[in-house]
Amino acid sequence: MTARSRVVIQKALSADHEVAVAETARRGHAARLAQGAAAEGVDLVVVLGGDGTLNEAANGLAGTTTALAPLPGGSTNVFARTLGLSDDPIEATGSLLEALAARSIKRVGLGEVNGRYFLFHCGIGFDAAVVEQVEKRGSLKRYAGHPLFMYSAVDTWLRHYDRRNAAFTVIHEEENDKGVGSVDAAFALFLNTNPYTYLGTRPFDVAPEATLDRPLTVVTVPHLKLLPLTRIATAALRDGSTLRKHPSVDYRPDISAVQVRGFRPFPYQVDGDYLGEVTSLKITHHPEVLDLVIPRNAHARLADR
């Protein structure tokens, strides 16, 4: 982002709305700013930033009547792109203003893990270990986001994660088409939306059923053998429709609650933000907990996925 872009966006929003600008200064600051805005009765919080900043703001606004709107300002902007916004923040501002004029605001559900809400996914095990390696090279992320992620994935698989032994078990206690029970795994994703991420302009479609109108989709990978992992990645880059039946994947849509227990400490991440290692997690879905501004052309696309 440039100073000129910020000025252009602020002027565009100020044409029909009363706008106050606040800049984040540290980790967790966006959540406190959002909480303060909700307490003051602000109608809308617009976040010009990446997925991590957006996640913090969502945590500050969940359960309130203050709406949230993203504008892409990070390296990947998964959630903004999932909503159909352009990666260009000025162009996305035009779509946001159109949505506000049409009052295109919807109450949506969020996932929650150990007290932290997530907008699009929570990843545990190998996925989180990759995010940790990306964050260790944070100075490169802005300029080489997608190549850095791919390099970190290979490097983590080779040197930074035990790929031979399961790290945790995912415990399903609610009845579904695969019944109750537990799945030992090295890698698991809990998705509130799809895609999981983007590689360049291509979506990485892991859970086509995951939408803001439904509970979570849980994708569990028991082991990290190279050939099955490559086939899973290839399927996701196509359209993800075959993952449900993939022999190396335990795929369960419409899950409201899951527990995870570790055989050893395991890492986890939320919306691309690495949160450290734990020995247990509780993941739940909370329907209709956040007011979200949605581009007008995104309603049908999100509902039909």
Describe the overall structure:
The chain is α+β, with helices and mostly antiparallel strands and 305 residues long. The chain folds into 2 domains: 3-110 and 290-304, Rossmann fold, CATH 3.40.50.10330; 116-285, Tumour Suppressor Smad4. Helix content is 34%, strand content 32%. It contains 10 helices and 14 strands. It has helices at 3-14, 29-39, 51-61, 78-82, 89-101, 126-136, 138-141, 145-160, 226-238, 298-304, and strands spanning 44-49, 67-72, 105-113, 116-118, 121-125, 168-172, 181-185, 187-191, 197-199, 202-204, 216-221, 250-255, 257-270, 273-293. Strands 3, 4, 5, 6, 7, 8, 11, 12, 13 and 14 form a 10-stranded antiparallel sheet that branches. A two-stranded parallel ribbon has the order 1-2. Strand 1 (44-49), helix 3 (51-61) and strand 2 (67-72) form a beta-alpha-beta unit. Helix 1 runs parallel beside helix 5, helix 2 (29-39) runs parallel beside helix 3 (51-61) and helix 6 (126-136) crosses helix 8 (145-160). The relative contact order is 0.17. The model has no long low-confidence stretch (mean pLDDT 90).
